[in-house]
User: Which sequence fits this backbone?
């Protein structure tokens, strides 16, 4: 099984989150079905960044992705999915979040919705 690693850098926010979604869509169209997002070089993750992670998760589940132009609607969809607590996502893992990013993941419930690993190798081996 091939695992695709996405490696965003810097800030994943309103300016950059579409790039992350676009890259995931590109590799998904090429056949990727298991993905790891390496957050080691991400120093800031905004609500738009959370929407990107959530959108990628829905893509990998074959579900409709929220419209990023929908603003609050995308956040509500994300909140509903996280609140449903369906267990960790089976096709998307997160790796090495820096302390500020990890705090965002904890406070939003994403730490419960996604398995988080210290390194890419462990995350890839978990599929």
Assistant:
């Amino acid at each position: 099984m091939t695992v695709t690693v996405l490696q965003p850098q810097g800030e994943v926010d309103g300016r950059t989150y579409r790039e992350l979604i676009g890259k995931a869509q590109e590799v998904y169209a090429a056949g990727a079905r298991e993905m790891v997002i390496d957050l080691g070089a991400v120093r800031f993750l905004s609500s738009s960044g959370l929407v990107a992670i959530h959108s990628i998760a829905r893509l990998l589940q074959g579900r409709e992705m929220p419209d990023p132009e929908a603003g609050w609607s995308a956040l509500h969809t994300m909140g509903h999915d996280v609140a449903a607590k369906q267990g960790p996502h089976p096709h998307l893992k997160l790796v090495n979040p820096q302390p500020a990013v990890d705090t965002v993941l904890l406070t939003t419930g994403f730490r419960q919705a996604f398995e988080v690993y210290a390194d890419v190798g462990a995350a890839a081996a978990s599929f």
